[in-house]
Amino acid sequence: MANSLHAAIIARFDTAEVARLAKIAKLPAGSNLAAFQAGIVFAVSLYLEERAEPSAGQVQVEIKNLLKAVRRAQDSGDARDVISAIGELAPISRDWIDQQAQYLRSTGRAIDISVESVADPTNRDAALRHLSWCLSSGGKNVEGRNRPSGRRSAPKLEPVLISPMVRRGAPAKVQEQMLIMWLQVAYNDASGTMPGLSANPIMTTPFELFAASVLVRIDTPYSKGANTKKAIRRLQESRRNAMKIPKHQKMPCQ
């Protein structure tokens, strides 16, 4: 599904679209548009590939939703939602759960979380119980929210998920910076010169307009929310930091 979607997105950057983007970027006369197109396609392909990998937060959501389905099945005896949720897991989420099952087996427990066992009425109860062990390690009390009256609502017990740690914001920011960097390379390959970067809050450079236009053309929920100016500012900052000489490496004054 993702591959066909990505192919459709990449196909948007045809000769006519690349010519339009070249005008936006103010690519110098005589530039190699074929090289420009190849560079854009590479940058977009890499961006889509990186964004296709589920984040830790997405894995956490899948594990939480599967756990909810397991608990509903334990109460109702109907495991169809569990089977459906397992089938929709991203490979990285499935691997995470399988690793936990493998760990539990190493402690001497006979763990069976196969879809076949979940579907089999004879083995279902044990399979659901084993699956819950792979998804959660107990629960914790969470304070209730403040009400307008000033009193808190009652605390509630929430599961402690066995899932990757979520680091908010970092992956998307890095992926946007990498897209900007490879679009710079595409510009350089086509024209022989690097485009000027500016994160000036007032002035917008042609390259910035070009990069923003590429993100608009990608047209996915995450590309729509990208901020080109901030991505350029972060890229510039990371380059400046890379150029700094650590204090312990500086030569002493003569």
Using brief descriptors, characterize the structure shown.
about 250 residues, mainly alpha, 2 domains, two-stranded antiparallel sheet, 2 strands, about 60% helix, elongated, disordered C terminus
Structural class: mainly alpha
- Cα end-to-end separation: 64 Å
Give helix and strand order, one letter per element, not per position.
Answer: HHHHHHHHEEHHHH
Side by side, the strands of the main sheet go 1-2
Mean residue pLDDT = 80
Report on the biggest sheet: 2 strands, antiparallel
Structure description:
- With 254 residues, the protein is mainly alpha-helical.
- It has 2 domains: 2-53 and 169-245, no CATH class; 56-144 and 154-161, no CATH class.
- 62% of the residues lie in helices and 5% in strands.
- It contains 12 helices and 2 strands.
- The protein has helices spanning 2-10, 15-25, 33-52, 56-76, 80-87, 91-106, 115-119, 124-135, 170-191, 206-218, 221-224, 228-243; strands at 136-142, 156-161.
- A two-stranded antiparallel ribbon has the order 1-2.
- Helix 2 packs antiparallel against helix 10, helix 3 runs antiparallel to helix 9 and helix 4 (56-76) packs antiparallel against helix 5 (80-87).
- The longest helix has 22 residues, at 170-191.
- It is elongated, with a radius of gyration of 25 Å.
